[in-house]
Each structure stands twice: as structure tokens, then as C-alpha cells.
Design goal:
With about 120 residues, the protein is an all-beta fold. It is about 0% helix and about 60% strand. It contains no helices and twelve strands.
Length: about 120
């Protein structure tokens, strides 16, 4: 069984920074793409950033130049460094891992529990 555990959310003033982490636990051989999504109240969940197994990254236009996604394959962890935060970044942030190869076979579409990020003006 694989679990994704997120950490790093919190309350920050506009212009501040936060770093989110999402670690997968279990007997894991490899992980495919890793993503960060967010969902603000009353809005649909949106893709914020993605990183492939090879390290290629993509970002939503709204966060380009401010957020950086990275991964540590040895730790089965994905990070989201968020700088120059704005009130409109306020949301619950979720990590997603596309394909996790485990000792019991592949697991697709695993989600973290979500972590709240609140940016005050």
C-alpha cells in the first residue's frame, strides 16, 4: 500500500514564500510524473505544476516565474517552492503521482490528503 503525505502549508503574507513537500511511502521501485494541483473555494481543481520522471517541468501561466517544482527520486518526494505568493494563490494544494511501481504492481493516480495554503493581503 502506498500513501502520499503532504506537508509545508500554512499562513503567509503576500510576497512571502512556502515550500510544500509530498512524500510517497511504501515499497516503491519508481514513480512516473508528479504533479501539484490546487483547489480554491468554489472553484475547480487546477493543475499548478508537473515534473516528469526525467525532470522536465511545466507550469500554469498563473505561477510561472514564481513557483518551482522539483523531485528527489531517492526519497520518493516532490516539492513545490512557492515565492512571491499572492492572495489568489490561497487554496488547498494536492500532490498527485501518476504511476507508482511497487512490489505489488503499479498504482495509478495516487493523491495526497491536501494541505492548506492561505496568503493574506
Amino acid at each position: 500500500q502506498v500513501q502520499l503525505v503532504e506537508s509545508g502549508g500554512g499562513l503567509v503574507q503576500a510576497g512571502g514564500s512556502l515550500r510544500l513537500s509530498c512524500a510517497a511511502s511504501g515499497i516503491i521501485f519508481s514513480i512516473g510524473a508528479m504533479d501539484w494541483y490546487r483547489q480554491a473555494p468554489g472553484k475547480q481543481r487546477e493543475l499548478v505544476a508537473s515534473i516528469t520522471s526525467g525532470g522536465s517541468t511545466t507550469y500554469a501561466d498563473s505561477v510561472k516565474g514564481r513557483f518551482t517544482i522539483s523531485r528527489d527520486n531517492a526519497k520518493n518526494t516532490v516539492y513545490l517552492q512557492m515565492n512571491s505568493l499572492k492572495p489568489e494563490d490561497t487554496a488547498v494544494y494536492y500532490c498527485n503521482m501518476d504511476r507508482i511501481a511497487t512490489n505489488k504492481g503499479p498504482i495509478f493516480g495516487s493523491w495526497g490528503q491536501g494541505t492548506q495554503v492561505t496568503v493574506s493581503s
